[in-house]
Amino acid sequence: MPPRASSIRQLLAAKARQGVHTAVHRGWDWVRRHGEITPHTPGRRKFAYLGEGACIGFPVGAIYGEPWISIGDHTLVGTHVTISAGFVPGLDLGPDVIVKIGSSCSLGRGTHIVGHQSIEIGDDVFTGPNVYITDQNHSYGDLDVPIGRQWPENNPVTIGDGCWIGTGAIILPGTRLGRNVAVAGGAVVRGEFPDHSVIGGVPAKVLRSHDPDQGWQPPLRKHPLISLDELAALSVDGLDGLQILQDKLREEAG
Fold it and tell me: How far apart are CA 234 and CA 127, in angstroms?
């Protein structure tokens, strides 16, 4: 094949690959947008409540038991998130909501919320990716029966308003987090923890807490870069506000 013909063929092949690439990504963007579950799509009808402005990203994880799941206004659920009530789809779980997620929450990609009795998540709760929250655990008291075949035990979970749960944290049955509790990534949490505390570890324990008279104990290392009012002002400025925040962080690090 002459050199010129070979070059033309390579150019056409490259353009074809670019065309396929563009088509695939545009098609996937279209699928993601139209696969989301919102208050304006048919999927909303299955839920006990799916609030105004709420959105469940596509592709979804395993979502079933929707009549016993309530998701508050303006809550964003990431992709591949599992939210389930009951063991399997199709069970009658009674008159009460089992999984209740508040308003203005953000659930990170790959998070699992598995409810059987009661999981209550407050307003403005944020999670990183791959957080696991459940109110049921296997029992192991019978030495002659495999653990997976023993009757499970339920214990309600409550997560207070404003909590932050870091990547990969596990929230076990019986956990009760107060308001504005920060959970370190990878923590395994069980028990009760007070408002305005920082917890972490396996098992999780209080690492820092706020005393009304003495402030944070142990004290915070330094003052925040900007006040909450300044942060709120930047948040409404879109990309320009985020750029200002990024510049401030770079200055602090430097």
Answer: 22
pLDDT tens figures, 208-247? 999 888 888 898 876 666 776 777 676 666 778 778 878 8
Closest CA relative to residue 134, chosen from 152, 111, 157:
157
- How is residue 223 written in tokens? 């003052």
Over residues 33-45, the pLDDT tens digits come to 999 999 999 988 9
Instruction: Return the sign of the alpha-carbon dihedral for residues 37, 40, 46, 50.
Output: positive
| Residue 118 token pair | 């009661």
Do 108 and 131 touch, CB atoms closer than 8 A? yes
- Tell me the three state secondary structure of residue 8: helix
240 SS3 class? helix
Q: In whole angstroms, what is the distance from residue 192 CA to residue 177 CA?
A: 6
